[in-house]
């Protein structure tokens, strides 16, 4: 039984709703997880997603900043969880539970803080917030609920591997690829028994990017990307993964996000 799950930092769901509509019409994932929706809950475009064939929705938003949303063609259970990581009131996490075939799956949708520009928490509170967020994520285990498999997706704002960035050497002191961040995210993954699905069929040294900066004059020619968006799962789901698609072309769409959609395809 086929299952497809997409993740995309959309950088304002209302501003880029036409792009989302085009993406869903063309690729038709069963579930789409959005980050950086920048939309309070009462203004989320529910009717638009219902019209697109995604009537099952869960969202956790706030005005102007952050925000995550999960829209689905599959029914979602009432076991919805919205966690306030670091206790600062940011809308950065949402999890839902759904059934597909013989599997019951909890799907986590994360938007990890970007961390600002300076990788020093003593002078940059945003970086400190990011490190604290990652530390709290270490408590999340892929097998914490009996009888429920797990998938974790989202913009984690860290490129953990050397081949997740265009230049490991030049980005070692750049936020998103500093050792304290990459080691922290690796600890989240290994300690929580998560499997990095994007690297299952594309191991290093293959380069994988999901983000290209707005600052690049010609992002495609420079190709200075980073893999900031991730799809992980509990170990029982990993053998069912068929492929992961990174939709690089989306970075060239009109008024695009600087992130592109990533789609995981399973056969359950």
Q: Tags for this entry?
A:
268 residues, alpha+beta, Deoxyribonuclease I, Chain A, six-stranded mixed beta sheet, five-stranded mixed beta sheet, globular
Brief overview, please?
The chain is an alpha+beta fold and 268 residues long. The chain is 19% helix and 27% strand. The protein has a single domain, classed as Deoxyribonuclease I, Chain A (4-Layer Sandwich), CATH 3.60.10.
SSE blueprint:
Layout: E1 2-9, H1 17-27, E2 31-35, H2 46-51, E3 56-60, E4 68-72, E5 93-100, E6 103-111, H3 125-137, E7 149-155, H4 168-171, H5 179-191, E8 194-196, E9 211-212, H6 219-222, E10 225-226, E11 229-234, E12 241-246, E13 262-267
Parallel strand pairs: 1-2, 6-7
Antiparallel strand pairs: 1-13, 2-4, 3-4, 5-6, 7-11, 8-11, 9-10, 12-13
Helix pairs in contact: 3-5
């Amino acid at each position: 039984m086929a299952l497809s799950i997409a993740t995309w930092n959309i950088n304002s769901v209302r501003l880029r709703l036409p792009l989302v509509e085009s993406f869903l019409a063309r690729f038709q994932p069963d579930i789409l997880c959005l980050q950086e929706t920048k939309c309070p809950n009462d203004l989320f475009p529910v009717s638009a997603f219902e019209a697109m064939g995604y009537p099952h929705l869960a969202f956790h938003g706030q005005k102007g900043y952050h925000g995550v949303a999960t829209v689905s063609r599959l029914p979602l259970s009432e076991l919805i969880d919205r966690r306030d990581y670091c206790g600062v009131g940011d809308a950065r996490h949402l999890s839902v539970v759904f059934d597909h075939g013989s599997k019951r799956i909890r799907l986590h949708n994360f938007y990890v803080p970007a961390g600002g520009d300076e990788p020093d928490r003593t002078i940059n509170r945003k970086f400190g917030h990011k490190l604290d967020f990652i530390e709290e994520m270490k408590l999340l285990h892929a097998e914490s609920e009996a009888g429920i498999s797990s998938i974790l997706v989202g913009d984690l704002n860290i490129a953990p591997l050397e081949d997740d960035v265009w230049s490991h050497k030049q980005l070692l002191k750049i936020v998103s690829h500093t050792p304290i961040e990459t080691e922290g995210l690796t600890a989240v993954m290994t300690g929580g028994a998560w499997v990095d699905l994007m690297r299952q069929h594309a191991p290093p040294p293959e380069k994988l990017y999901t983000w290209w900066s707005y600052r690049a004059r010609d992002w495609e020619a420079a190709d200075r990307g980073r893999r900031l968006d991730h799809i992980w799962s509990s170990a029982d789901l990993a053998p069912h993964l068929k492929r992961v698609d990174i939709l690089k072309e989306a970075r060239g769409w009109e008024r695009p996000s600087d992130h592109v959609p990533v789609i995981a395809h399973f056969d359950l």
